[in-house]
Each structure stands twice: as C-alpha cells, then as structure tokens.
Amino acid sequence: MDFIASLQAAIESITANKLRSALTVLGIVIGVGAVIAMLAIGRGAQDSIAGSIEGIGTNLLFVMRGDSQNQVRNPQPLTMDDAAALSDVFQAPSVINVAPLLQGSATVSARGESTTTTLNGITSEHEAVRGWSVSEGEFINSSHLLGRSAVVLLGTAVADDLFGRHDGLVGETVRINGQPFRVIGILAERGTGGFSNENDTVMVPLTTAQARLLQRSTPRSVDVILVQAVDADAVPQASEQVANILRTRHRTALGADDFTIINQQDFLDTAASITGVLTIFLGGIAAISLLVGGIGIMNIMLVSVIERTREIGLRKALGARKRDILFQFLAESSLLSLIGGILGITLGWLISVGVGAIAAAANADIVPKIGIDSVLLATLFSMAVGLFFGLYPANQAANLQPVEALRYE
Amino acid sequence: MAERVVEARHLSKVYQMGDVEVHALRGLSLDINRGEAMAIMGPSGSGKSTLMNILGCLDRPSAGSYHLDGESVANLDDDQLADIRNRKVGFVFQTFNLLRRTSALENVELPLRYAGVGAGRRQRAIAALEAVGLGERLDHRPNELSGGQQQRVAIARALVNEPAIIMADEPTGNLDSKAGADIMKLLLKLNRQDGKTLIIVTHDSDVAEQTDRIVLIRDGQVEADRKLGRSKKIASKGK
C-alpha cells in the first residue's frame, strides 16, 4: 500500500469524526502551546533582566562595605578618600573612572506638592560611569561639589509629580527634607525596565548630601563606590587593583576583606541562573501537559481500533499486510499530533503576544521571544508523542486476526 | 481432466475453547476444478465457516495440506497469507463490507492498492465496476447505493485483482429476493461467461441448486458431494 493511500485513509478517519478529532487534538494544542509560550516568556524575562543589568553601564564594578557573608566584624566604611585612592593611575591603571555614591530616600516638595523619592549623592563622574545625562540644564560639576551647593537634578518622574511637566524647570526651587535646592537640570528619561524606576530619583552633589541630607556616623563616608574599568576585558584586573588598594588602606591584608567587589557579570550570571531554572520549571510543567495530550491520543486511537475492527478485518481479507495496517494507524496518530503541534505553536505565539502586551501595559518591559529551536522542538516532540502513543494501538490493529476481526460486531 | 484450482487434503482444525478441544474440521478433503461453480452447504456448527476461512486463506488448518492455484498455502505466515488472499481470492460477504466513507471506485481500488498496483489502477477498477453494471455509479458512496448495488460493488472488488477463486459467503443473505436473484445471476454469469471459479457458502438451497455442484458438510467432514447435471452440459459446450 502506498504512502499516500495510508495518509488518505488517516485523513478520512480524522475528518469522519471531527468533534472527536478536535477534542483529541486539543490536548496536544494546549501542551505544545504551553511549552512554546513558557519558553518564550522565560527567554523574554531573561533578556529583559540581562538588558536592565547591562543598562546600568558597561565595565562596572560595585565596591561595597562589608563582606558578602557578613562575617567580618566592624567593617570600615568606604570613604571619599578610598574613592580618591582608587583613581590613582599608578596603583590602578585599569580603572578609568571612580564614582562614589551616597544613597537614601528623601521627601521632595514644591508648590505644595510633595513626593518621596530616591536621593543620590553623586559626583560629576557619574555622568560618564552611569551614562546619565540631562535633557536640559547642566550636570553636577566639581564646583558644585567643592561648594557643597544646594543644587539638584530632577528625574522626570519626580518633575512630573511636583510640577506636572519635566521641561522648563531650570531655576525653580524645590525643598528636600525642608531645605531649599535650586534645580539645575532635568535628567534625561530612561527606560523603565528592571527592578526600579530610574526616573523616580533626585541627585545632589555628594558633598552636599554628606553634609546636609544623608548624615552617616563617619563623615566623608560613602555607600558604594562605582568603578569603571577601561574596557570589558580589563574588569578582572581592575577588580584586583581595587582590592589591593583597599586592603592596604583598610589594613586587612592578612585577614578577610571588609569590602565586597561585585561586577556586572556576577549579576548577569545570577540572574541567568534564576531565570534558567524558572524556564526549565515552567517548560517542564508544560511538557507534562503535552504528555497528557499524548495519552489522550492513545486513548482515542485505542477506541478507534476497536470501532474499526471489522474494517481492519476487511482490509486484511483484501490483502493488507501487518505493516499496511500499522502504517495507517500510525499515520493517523502522528497526523493528529502534528495538527495539534501546528495549532499549538499558533496558540503559544498568541499567548506570548498577549503576555507581551500585558507586560507592556504594566510597564514591565518583557518581550517574549519564540525561538526557531523551541518551535522545532515542539513540532518534533509532538510528532514523537503521536508516534509513541500511536504505536501500541496501531500494533493492536495490525495483529488482529482477520477471521475474528471480520466476525466482530 | 480439468485443472484443479483447490486441492485440500485431510484438513483438520482444532479450536481450544477453555479446557475443551473443538474439532471444527476432521480430515476433510476437497478438490475444486477451475471454472466450477459450487456451493458449500451445511447446518451451523458443521465446520462450513471454518472450511470457508481456510479455503479463503483467512485461517490456517491445524493439519493437512492445501494447494490453492498450485501454491501450497497451509503453512504460510500472516503476511504471506495476506499476499495470497490479495492475488488469488476475491471475497463477497453477506454484509457487503464496503468502506462507508469512500466511493464505489475507491472501494474497488483497495485490493489493487494493497497489491501495489500504481499505473492503470483506476482503469481496472472502472472496468470491474462496468462489468457488474455499475459504470454509472463510480463516485457514489455505499450509503447512496441500494443493497443489491452495494453487493455489486463488492463483487467488482472481488473481481478486480483477477483472483483464482471467488468466495461468496451468503451473498444473497442480506438482500430481498429480487436483488438476491440479480446477484446470483451476476455471479453465475461471471462463472459461465468469464470462467471464474465460484465458491458459494450458503444455507439457501435455491441458491445452491443454481450451481454445478453442492458439497454438504456435517461434523467437519464432507457428507455428500453432488454434481448437478448442468455442469456437464456447460463443460461440453465450452469444448
């Protein structure tokens, strides 16, 4: 019997019982759709997180106080002097920029409106290190720092909250924790991906913050020192040079370090491993539903074999060999699952687009990505499910004895 | 002497029904000549159906030898038997056994498909349907045809591979007497005009009387084997 005839017989049988075929296929559709959508969303989340980490700035090291396990007692705070030492070209040739940072929260008010936001005490280096820029006005410069000027840069979200707009505000006065600050610039708007809204912030000179807004127990101390390496390849050397300088300054050359250096790759790796586990977990759950769909196919194929016992007997009487019958039923089950696979890919795509739209509406910048590999995987897997779960019923059919099959009522 | 198309020797068939052995055939021997039209009769439980299944290569005997059209078929495996059925046996069933969802033409083509016939398949199927007088109904489905017409499709299907024997199991059993008579006329015409070997299994003695020979089976053995006068006339006419 030729291939086309088997396929024809399979199509006839599928179309003869449309509702039943549709319900059988539904299991595979949901299974494949779920696998496709889960993998796409997982990949989208991974890209989004990686993007927001990379968006922090390239070649960055974050130096923080204390060790990562919190086992060093009384770690020395990082200070402006540490930051200055790290800028030493001779001791740290791989470092190009050092930007100390003091961070806290503050209440900002103007014209009776008030909002609580993130307050960053920064230096002029932040412009280069973090890629900040202003959409109007000027960035904080060294004379602001030296003079501990009461000047502020507003993020667009804060400007909108206070003034209802974010342009033409240079020269306005706002109050931070009750103290008047002159607006010298508006920060350029940033994407809202990742963990926090970077537009919801205000920036003042680091020295001003130390003196008037974010007092720490040690004067001149900072929370984080951002270190920019000359390029991505220099990050490990930069990290080593920073560590050596700090060990000398903190006199911890013999003991454990009382500071922690984290680079972007660490963040990326952690995030990738978390989202990877999540994707596998979701994909695994989806694969189980595909398996259930396969069992549904097997169930229907078994019923179909019993229903068509006489037909099988007749085909055998007319000269069908075992493999003719086997092939006919395998063609039917794999065709069912292939149809399910194709519809499932469509469904998965729709779900991905839907999730993407919902995420976009919620400002969570996740763009689900359907890879060609996951489409191939789902198609092959659904075909394999059809073949595997069709094998047993098809074998039952092929091994029927013609005499008994013809006698079957 | 006429050529033997069926040569069965000492056929026996034993079924195991739980603890009991049922002897459906007990050393039955039977010869059928090419071009004969014969009827197999017998009460239910006589072994008639078992004999038909073995002669039609649907089943194997437990013991004995069987040559169909010169080939020994008693010990073939399932696929070899399928091949023999395809080439040498045309079946006509009481309940027609057509595929419901396919046209008359496709039903008739089916044995040719299993035979691997590609080129000329359609033409041969059309010729077979024309031979049974259904040249106008090629694309009708079984449920659009009367019982008699359905049986004609089945006969066309039995003919299409030019088998050595046509096995008809109660071919008129599900038909009214008019349609039944037509079907018998058609089968006998195929025998008389085209020389097809015809084996009819039936309860109906009116049907049996129209053939050349009646074999009566009882208790798994041939009880009587009666040639009817007409066969000689036909045979002499043929020569």
Overview features:
heterodimer; A: 409 residues; alpha+beta; two-stranded antiparallel ribbon; 13 helices; 18% strand; B: 239 residues; alpha/beta; Rossmann fold; six-stranded mixed sheet; four-stranded antiparallel sheet; 8 helices; 10 strands; globular; disordered C terminus
Structure description:
- The complex is a heterodimer of chains A (409) and B (239).
- Chain A has 409 residues and is of the alpha+beta class.
- In chain A, 55% of the residues lie in helices and 18% in strands.
- Chain A has 13 helices and twelve strands.
- In chain A, helix 2 crosses helix 11, helix 2 (18-54) packs antiparallel against helix 12 (372-398) and helix 9 runs antiparallel to helix 11.
- The longest helix of chain B has 18 residues, at 177-194.
- In chain B, strand 9 and strand 10 form a beta hairpin.
- In chain B, the strands form two sheets. Chain B has a six-stranded mixed sheet with strand order 6-7-8-3-9-10.
- Chain B is of the alpha/beta class.
- In chain B, helix 3 crosses helix 4, helix 3 packs parallel to helix 5 and helix 4 packs across helix 5.
- Chain B has a single domain (35-57, 84-238), classed as P-loop containing nucleotide triphosphate hydrolases (Rossmann fold, 3-Layer(aba) Sandwich).
- The interface between A and B is medium-sized, with 22 and 26 residues.
Q: Summarize the largest interface: chains and residue counts.
A: A-B, 22 and 26 residues
Based on DSSP secondary structure assignment, what is the total number of beta strands of chain B?
A: 10
* Separation, N- and C-terminal Cα atoms of chain A: 26 Å
Name the CATH superfamily assignment of chain B. P-loop containing nucleotide triphosphate hydrolases
Percent of residues in helices of chain B: 25-40%
Radius of gyration of chain B: 18 Å
Main pleated sheet of chain B:
6 strands, mixed
Question: How many discrete structural domains of chain A?
Answer: 2
Summarize the structure.
The complex is a heterodimer of chains A (409) and B (239). Chain A is of the alpha+beta class and 409 residues long.
